[in-house]
User: Which sequence fits this backbone?
């Protein structure tokens, strides 16, 4: 990559160009006009009546749109918190509260979700921010895996849906914590943790080491542009695939397996994988199934779903290599299945 | 070309999706996609996104040539461009296709009444007075029907103005249809179809599948021999109605 050396002249030129001027106002005006044009386009096309698509195609569009609309606010929140962590919070803050010892560090990191309450899709930009901020790759994974489960919103909704019945809430929280820490430990044994990342993201992190440029406002906008350009295509494609699979795979195939101790666990994990619903609300989603499915399978759904599903894999692929994700998926699937079976047979 | 697609695709996508979300909220159609409790959160976050989009466009006026992007390999570039193209095409679809509810295709695929209702409905219903019974929606009736087929239970409980869309009973599509609604806990993705069977021979001549109807009548034993439903509504009147502004039940 070309390294631009800064001379006094270029620095002056850059500073001059950074000053807020008429050009910026015009550009901002164009941006506003563009947004108004989009809304106007949407308002006029809405009158055109039904599009005449076949039902299945129309439902695919409705389902995918609903995944995107549902995830959008969480993605924005995630990007905003990620900007906060990277640009506005002094580096020392985050690193100071962490214990020195590796297990302790990971344990504390897995509780970060308690005060950064984003669900799984918002976690990806945040985890990327943590890696840029000098956290190790396994530590970023611990956060990514634990935070969607160990966060106040998820705990509240799970409690609202299940109370303390059948140990579902406790198993979900403990299970999420243990799986995240175990996985973090496994990956910390990796000799070259940087190779777990995609080449692109690893390179970005190397470049950012050391120098940052621009004012904080500029960094904020830059980060927003970069994070959205990486996450939004992944989100849309993940939503399309999730919507497509839902219009094709009949639901009753999964439901038929509900009362077998082993198959119910596997079926619920398959459902969690396909449905890609947010961890903040998945408890409500699964509640109607609770009377046909065994508690262990509900726990497997609630632990596996927030960590691994179609939409999440698309989003995580922006950061981690395909091989890493395959390993993560296998390990998490195995551990959630074990957890589900333990609950089914023991509780 | 690559670098501007790379830089602007996210801003364009997030701007367009946020604009669509705000318009849906303004026109009261956000409930076609998500549960009402997320509307405020979604609107606030979409507004924040749009402010950042405008800031990003404004800052482009003084942007120095970006020196810190890693040059991608050919494969990465092709992958990135096609991902951006697919995502762009879909978001254009979100901008121009009229918003729609889920149809019977999904109701069939998810199997009407596949999930269990909670057991409290039956107890509550057996004690409910006439006024409450008259307000029962597809959700209450389908929950009751799953738990009992005792005709005595339904004796003094008529169905009044039960609104839903028409979905054929897969076992006896000629004579029986479901008055159906989707129930949503979070967003349209988790929609569960619920339905109350209605016995009305050759209903297809008068009501299209997916059209909305309002049914009044009494419950009775199912005259159909092939339908799996023991108890159905024997309708006094079936009226075609407009789709309600909140087509889903929450």
Assistant:
């Amino acid at each position: 990559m070309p390294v631009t050396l800064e001379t006094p002249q270029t620095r002056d030129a850059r500073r001059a160009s950074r000053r807020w001027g008429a050009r910026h106002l015009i550009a901002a005006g164009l941006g506003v006009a563009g947004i108004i044009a989009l809304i106007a386009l949407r308002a006029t096309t809405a009158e055109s009546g039904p599009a005449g698509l076949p039902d299945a195609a129309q439902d695919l569009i409705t389902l995918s749109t609903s995944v995107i609309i549902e995830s959008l606010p969480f993605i924005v929140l995630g990007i905003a918190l990620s900007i906060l962590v990277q640009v506005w919070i002094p580096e020392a803050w985050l690193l100071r509260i962490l214990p020195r010892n590796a297990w302790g560090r990971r344990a504390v990191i897995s509780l970060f979700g308690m005060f950064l309450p984003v669900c799984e899709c918002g976690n990806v930009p945040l985890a990327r921010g943590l890696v840029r901020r000098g956290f190790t790759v396994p530590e970023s994974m611990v956060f990514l895996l634990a935070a969607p489960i160990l966060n106040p919103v998820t705990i509240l909704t799970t409690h609202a849906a299940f109370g303390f019945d059948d140990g579902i809430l406790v198993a979900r929280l403990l299970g999420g914590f243990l799986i995240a820490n175990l996985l973090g430990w496994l990956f910390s044994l990796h000799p070259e943790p940087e190779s777990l990342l995609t080449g692109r993201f690893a390179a970005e992190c190397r470049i950012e080491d050391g120098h940052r440029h621009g004012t904080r406002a500029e960094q904020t906008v830059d980060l927003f542009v970069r994070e959205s350009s990486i996450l939004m295509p992944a989100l849309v494609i993940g939503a399309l695939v999730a919507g497509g699979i839902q219009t094709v795979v009949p639901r009753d195939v999964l439901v038929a397996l509900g009362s077998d101790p082993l198959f119910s666990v596997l079926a619920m994990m398959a459902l969690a994988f396909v449905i890609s619903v947010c961890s903040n609300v998945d408890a409500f989603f699964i509640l109607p199934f609770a009377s046909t499915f065994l508690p262990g399978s509900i726990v497997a759904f609630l632990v596996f779903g927030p960590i691994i599903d179609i939409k999440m894999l698309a989003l995580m692929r922006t950061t981690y290599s395909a091989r890493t994700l395959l390993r993560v998926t296998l390990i998490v699937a195995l551990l959630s299945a074990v957890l589900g079976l333990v609950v089914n047979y023991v509780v | 070309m690559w670098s501007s697609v790379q830089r602007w695709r996210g801003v364009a996508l997030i701007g367009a999706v946020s604009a669509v979300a705000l318009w849906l909220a303004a026109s009261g159609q956000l409930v076609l996609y998500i549960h009402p409790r997320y509307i405020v959160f979604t609107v606030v976050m979409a507004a924040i996104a749009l402010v950042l989009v405008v800031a990003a466009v404004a800052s482009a006026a003084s942007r120095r040539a970006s020196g810190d992007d890693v040059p991608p390999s050919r494969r990465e570039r092709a992958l990135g461009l096609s991902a951006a193209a697919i995502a762009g095409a879909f978001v254009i679809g979100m901008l121009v296709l009229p918003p729609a509810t889920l149809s019977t295709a999904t109701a069939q695929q998810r199997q009407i009444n596949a999930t269990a209702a909670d057991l409290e409905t039956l107890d509550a219903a057996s004690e409910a007075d006439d006024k409450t019974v008259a307000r029962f929606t597809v959700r209450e009736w389908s929950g009751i029907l799953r738990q009992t087929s005792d005709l005595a239970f339904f004796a003094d409980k008529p169905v009044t103005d039960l609104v839903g869309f028409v979905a054929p009973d897969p076992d006896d599509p000629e004579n029986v249809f479901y008055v159906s609604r989707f129930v949503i806990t979070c967003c349209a993705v988790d929609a569960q179809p619920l339905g109350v069977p209605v016995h009305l021979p050759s209903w297809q001549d008068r009501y299209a599948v997916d059209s909305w109807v309002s049914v009044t009548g009494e419950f009775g034993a199912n005259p159909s021999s092939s339908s799996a439903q023991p108890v159905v509504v024997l309708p006094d009147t079936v009226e075609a109605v407009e789709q309600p502004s909140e087509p889903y039940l929450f």
